[in-house]
Design a protein that fits this description.
The complex is a heterodimer of chains A (about 525) and B (about 90).
Chain A: H1 2-21, H2 26-47, H3 53-58, H4 65-76, H5 79-92, H6 94-121, H7 126-130, H8 136-170, H9 174-222, H10 227-237, H11 254-268, H12 272-277, H13 284-316, H14 336-385, H15 392-416, H16 423-446, H17 452-472, H18 474-477, H19 494-511, H20 517-533
Chain B: H1 7-42, H2 58-92
The chains are: A mainly alpha (about 525), B mainly alpha (about 90).
Chain lengths: ~525, ~90
C-alpha cells in the first residue's frame, strides 16, 4: 500500500506535471496539477477508511444534503453538457436550450418520486431496492446488466471526449490523455471509493459553476446586462440571423422530440451513478435536500450555458483567430466555451476554464466507474455468485479490483474508439437507463402486482429492444454502417422502448401463475411502509 | 366529541397525501415540458414572436421559465415535505 503512494507522489504525479506543462498554457497546467494534488491527498486520507463497506460505497452516509447536492451536480454535469450544450447554442441558438431543459426536467421528477424512497429502502446500489421484494439473484443480474451497459456506454463517450479535448487544451497526445484520465479515476475509485469520488465531484462542481458564472458575467457585462442587446448582436452576426431565436433545424418531427424528452427525463432517473449518490446522506430528508440543491445548481448552470453560447456567437463568429480556413470554429463547435473564455478573459481565464473542463471529466468518469464496480462487486459477486455468503473483506476486494478492471477497460475502449463519432453512446446510455433501470425501480416502489419474472423478462425485453432499435435506427445503421436507409426510422427510440418495457413487465407479471399473489401484496405493503416511514 | 384518528387511519392519510403531492407535482412538470415540446413540434412560429420592443422571443422566455419553474417546484415540494409531511410522519413513528 505505502509503496503505491510512493509511486503516485514520486513517479506518477511528477510525470503528470511534466506532461501537462508541455502545453501552451501554463495557467491551465498549474491549476489542473493543483486540482490533482488536492484530490490525490483527499484520496490518500479516504483510503484509510475505505476498508469498511459503508465508507467505500456510500462515504459512511455522512455527506450532508447540501454537499451531496453539489456532488450530484458534479456527477451529472459532464463536459458534454458544459461544452456540448454551449457549442450547440453557438451553432444553432435556441435549439440548444431544448436540450438543456430536457436534461433538467428529470431532476424535479427524481425529487418527487425517487430520492427519499431510494434512501429509505436501499443501502449502496439501486439493485438493493429493486431486489427487496423479489427474487434476489434474477433482479440483481438484470440491475447489474442495466448498470454496466449504461456505465460502459457513458464511459466510452466520456473517454473519447476527454482524449480529444485534452489533446487540444494541453497539447498532449490522445492516448496519453486517455491514460491520465483512466489512471486518475482508478486511483480515486479504487482507493478512495465514494469518499474520494464525492470530494472530487464537489470540488469540480464548485469550480465549474464558479467558472461558468464568471464567463456568463463577462459576456453580460459587454451588453450592459441586457439580454435583448446580447440576442440582437447575435442575430446580426450569425449566418442564420433571426432564426437562432426560435426552434429550427435540430428538431424536425414531434415524435423524435417527445422521444428524446422521455429518454432524457426517465433516463436521468435511471442513471446508476446518480442513484447511488442518494445513499451517501444520513436520512430521507437529506436525500430530499440533495435533490433540491442538485436541481438548483444544474438549472442555474444550464441558464449560464445559454448565455455563454450566445456570447460565443457574438465574440467568435467573426474572429479569425478562433476559426480554421473554412470558417469553422477551431477544434469543433464544442470548443465554443473554451475559445470564448480566451476571447473575453485572456490567457489566465482560458487556463482556468481548460483545467475546469479536465476536472469535469474526471468527476464524471469516477462516479461512473464506482457505480460499475459496485454492480460487479456487490450485485453480481455477492448476491448472484455467492448467494449472499461472503465476508465484507472479500466483497470489498472484488469491488475495488472491479474498479481497476473497469478503468482499464475504459482506457482501451477510449483508445479503440479514437476519432469516431461516439455522441450517440450517451443517448443510448440514457435510453437504456430509461427503458430498463427506471421501469423496474419505479414499479418496485409503486406497483403491488410486480413479480420477479415480470421485472426480469420485461426489463430484459426493454434492454434488448432499446439496443436493437438504436442499431437499426439512423444513428448507427446510416452513420456508422453507412447503409442508405435505416430499418427503424427514428433517431430516438425511447417513446417505443419505454412503452414496450412497461407493457411487458406489467403483462408478464399479471400472467405469472407461479407468483404468490397474497404474499406479493403483503411484501409490497411492508415495502411501502419502509419507503415512506424509513424505519427499517 | 370528535373521534381521534387511529394510527392506521393516519398512516393511510399520510401515504395518500405523499402520493398525491408527488404524483401531481410530477404530472405538472411533465405536462409543462411536453406542452413546450409539442409547441416546438407543431407551432414553432409562435415561439418566434418577439416580446414588445426587444429581441427576446416567446420561446426564449418560455424555455428559461421552465428551468426557473422547475427549481421553484422543487423548493415548493421541499417546503411542503419538510414542514408538513415530515411532521405527519413523526406522529406515526
Amino acid at each position: 500500500m505505502t509503496v503505491f503512494y510512493y509511486f503516485i507522489f514520486l513517479f506518477f504525479f511528477p510525470s503528470l506535471c511534466l506532461a501537462t506543462s508541455g502545453g501552451s498554457n501554463y495557467f491551465a497546467a498549474i491549476i489542473f496539477i493543483l486540482f490533482v494534488f488536492v484530490t490525490l491527498l483527499i484520496t490518500y486520507y479516504a483510503s484509510k477508511k475505505t476498508n469498511i463497506k459503508e465508507n467505500y460505497y456510500a462515504a459512511g452516509g455522512k455527506i450532508s444534503g447540501f454537499q451531496n447536492g453539489l456532488a450530484i451536480a458534479g456527477d451529472y454535469m459532464s463536459a458534454a453538457s458544459f461544452l456540448g450544450i454551449s457549442g450547440l447554442v453557438f451553432f444553432s441558438g435556441f435549439d440548444g436550450l431544448i436540450y438543456s431543459i430536457g436534461f433538467l426536467v428529470g431532476w424535479p421528477i427524481i425529487l418527487f418520486l425517487i430520492s427519499e424512497r431510494l434512501k429509505n429502502l436501499g443501502k449502496f446500489t439501486f439493485a438493493d431496492v429493486t431486489s427487496i421484494r423479489l427474487e434476489q439473484s434474477k433482479i440483481r443480474i438484470l440491475s447489474a446488466i442495466g448498470t454496466l451497459v449504461t456505465v460502459i456506454l457513458y464511459l466510452i463517450a466520456q473517454m473519447v471526449g476527454a482524449g480529444s479535448l485534452i489533446q487540444i487544451l494541453f497539447g498532449l497526445p490522445y492516448e496519453v490523455a486517455v491514460w491520465i484520465v483512466g489512471i486518475l479515476m482508478i486511483i480515486y475509485v479504487g482507493f478512495g471509493g465514494m469518499i474520494a469520488t464525492t470530494w472530487v465531484q464537489i470540488i469540480k462542481a464548485f469550480l465549474l459553476i464558479f467558472g461558468a458564472s464568471i464567463l456568463a458575467f463577462l459576456v453580460f457585462k459587454e451588453f450592459s446586462f441586457s439580454l435583448s442587446n446580447l440576442l440582437n448582436q447575435a442575430t446580426l452576426i450569425h449566418d442564420s440571423g433571426q432564426e437562432i431565436l426560435f426552434p429550427g433545424r435540430l428538431i424536425d418531427d414531434p415524435i423524435s422530440a417527445i422521444s428524446l424528452g422521455i429518454a432524457l427525463i426517465l433516463g436521468t432517473a435511471g442513471l446508476p451513478h446518480i442513484l447511488m449518490r442518494f445513499f451517501t446522506v444520513p436520512d430521507a430528508k437529506s436525500a430530499r435536500i440533495s435533490a433540491l440543491y442538485a436541481t438548483t445548481f444544474i438549472g442555474y448552470f444550464y441558464i449560464l450555458t445559454f448565455v455563454i453560447g450566445f456570447g460565443a456567437i457574438v465574440f467568435l463568429t467573426k474572429d479569425s483567430s478562433y476559426l480554421d480556413s473554412t470558417g469553422n470554429l477551431l477544434g469543433s463547435n464544442n470548443m465554443a466555451a473554451i475559445h470564448l473564455s480566451h476571447s473575453i478573459g485572456g490567457e489566465f481565464f482560458l487556463g482556468f476554464i481548460s483545467a475546469v473542463a479536465f476536472a469535469t471529466i474526471l468527476a464524471v468518469v469516477s462516479g461512473l466507474t464506482l457505480a460499475g464496480a459496485s454492480a460487479v462487486g456487490r450485485d453480481l459477486f455477492v448476491y448472484v455468485i455467492k448467494k449472499g455468503n461472503v465476508d465484507d473483506k472479500k466483497e470489498l476486494l472484488v469491488s475495488k479490483s472491479s474498479s481497476v478492471l473497469i478503468g482499464i477497460l475504459a482506457i482501451f475502449l477510449g483508445i479503440f474508439f479514437e476519432g469516431q463519432n461516439v455522441a450517440f453512446m450517451v443517448g443510448l446510455a440514457f435510453a437504456v437507463a430509461a427503458s430498463t433501470n427506471f421501469p423496474i425501480l419505479f414499479l418496485t416502489i409503486t406497483w403491488k402486482h410486480l413479480t420477479t419474472n415480470g421485472a426480469f423478462y420485461g426489463g430484459m425485453i426493454g434492454l434488448i429492444t432499446t439496443i436493437a432499435l438504436v442499431i437499426l435506427g439512423p444513428t448507427i445503421w446510416i452513420e456508422v454502417f453507412n447503409f442508405k436507409k435505416a430499418i427503424f426510422p427514428y433517431k430516438y427510440p425511447a417513446i417505443f422502448t419505454v412503452s414496450i418495457s412497461f407493457i411487458s413487465i406489467v403483462l408478464i407479471s399479471l400472467l405469472d401463475k407461479r407468483a404468490n399473489k397474497l404474499e406479493n401484496i403483503e411484501k409490497f405493503n411492508k415495502l411501502t411502509r419502509e419507503a415512506y416511514l424509513g424505519n427499517k | 366529541m370528535k373521534k381521534l384518528p387511529s394510527k392506521e387511519k393516519l398512516y393511510n392519510k399520510f401515504i395518500f397525501l405523499n402520493k398525491l403531492i408527488a404524483f401531481s407535482f410530477s404530472l405538472l412538470i411533465l405536462f409543462i415540458y411536453f406542452a413546450f415540446i409539442l409547441l416546438i413540434g407543431f407551432r414553432p412560429r409562435v415561439l418566434g414572436i418577439y416580446l414588445y420592443d426587444s429581441y427576446i422571443t416567446v420561446g426564449i422566455v418560455l424555455g428559461l421559465s421552465i428551468i426557473i419553474f422547475s427549481i421553484f417546484l422543487t423548493f415548493a415540494y421541499t417546503l411542503i415535505a419538510n414542514n408538513y409531511l415530515d411532521k405527519l410522519k413523526d406522529k406515526l413513528k
